[in-house]
Design brief:
disordered C terminus, 14 helices, globular
Length: 336
């Protein structure tokens, strides 16, 4: 199992090392010191930007999948209500089959929204291994990783920000600065995750989805994630926590933009979006379609009652009055 994990993560380590080193070279060219903590911290931020930019297509898929999952919650509730209280194998199998058919019909499933997290995980652990191995590479106990040579590893390993080495962790810290920076980053990670999840639930979910088990599960995660961060964060190097916090900020900003510009149908964000369009005098999406449907319905009602449907064109080609007061194109007043 260990060999398999190594074979998967080794190429990721190399890629992470090259991206970090590339940004490090750019920042040193711009005049930042080679061994400064800010230079390596910005290199980690650059790594996040590259990885998250490459994942934008996956994020779009995630948004579409999450939106579909929200909209089909009433249908899922119907299926669950249909088989409520039935615990026999046949009923459970039938409920699972109907649920999967609904997912297939709508082109979504609960795992689609996890794609960005799953794709990002190897890079997270790749960075963890690179930072964790800096001391061994610098001392010659471990071979270099891509461009991270003994000299470069020594610079990165000794680099510190606010008095905390980027390669150090809370549990391995021998100074108060590292512990303080770790705690601050964990709090910031928890706050950004909470904000991201909360704005999704309070602003971008229709009422039908808010009352669903899916929403209750999401709400529970609001309070579970901070605990996970606190327990796991004390084991990770400062550089990894910085990566984690930066990617959370990216997620929060990206989601804020999507909720503001492309809100889910029936959500509070959609109502706010429509209000903004009205204030700016711009057409509201769906209003034109609704008007056409209403007009069509009026036409059908008039046809059923035997009344002639009057044209609603702004330019009237017939019956328009000429400057002399005579109708254009009609019979003359003297004619019979």
């Amino acid at each position: 199992m260990g060999d398999l994990l190594n074979s998967i993560l080794t190429p990721i380590e190399w890629l992470v090392a090259w991206i970090m080193y590339g940004f490090h070279q750019v920042f040193t060219t711009l005049g930042l010191p080679e061994a400064a903590g800010i230079t390596w911290a910005l290199s980690i931020v650059g790594l996040v930007i590259v990885m998250r930019a490459a994942m934008i297509p996956l994020f779009v898929k995630q948004i579409k999948a999450s939106r579909k999952m929200q909209l089909i919650q009433p249908e899922l509730q119907k299926i669950q209500k249909k088989y409520k209280g039935k615990s026999d194998p046949e009923s459970r199998q039938a409920m699972t089959q109907e649920t999967m058919e609904l997912y297939k019909k709508e082109g979504t499933n609960p795992f689609s929204s996890c794609l960005p997290i799953l794709v990002q995980s190897p890079f997270f652990f790749g960075l963890f291994r690179v930072l964790n191995g800096l001391q061994d590479i610098a001392s010659g106990k471990k071979d270099q990783i891509g461009p991270i040579t003994k000299t470069v590893a020594g610079q990165a390993e000794s680099a510190s920000i606010f008095g905390a080495q980027l390669s150090d962790s809370f549990l391995r810290a021998n100074n108060l600065s590292t512990q303080i920076v770790t705690v601050v980053l964990i709090v910031l990670m928890s706050a950004t995750t909470f904000t991201t999840q909360r704005q999704l639930m309070t602003k971008n979910m229709p009422q039908s989805a808010l009352d669903s088990p899916f929403a209750k599960q999401q709400k529970m995660l609001l309070y579970i994630f901070p605990v996970i961060f606190a327990v796991s964060g004390i084991n990770f190097p400062i550089g990894v926590l910085l990566y984690w916090f930066t990617t959370n900020v990216w997620s929060m900003t990206q989601q804020f933009y999507v909720i503001r510009r492309m809100p889910a149908p029936g959500s509070a964000a959609e109502r706010a979006y429509h209000e903004r369009l009205k204030r700016k005098g711009k057409p509201v999406p769906g209003a034109v379609v609704a008007a056409e449907i209403t007009e069509g319905a009026e036409g059908e009602d008039a046809a059923k009652s035997g009344q002639r449907v009057q044209p609603k064109s702004k330019k009237r080609t017939k019956g328009a009055t000429k400057p002399g007061g005579k109708p254009a194109g009609g019979p003359s007043s003297s004619g019979g």
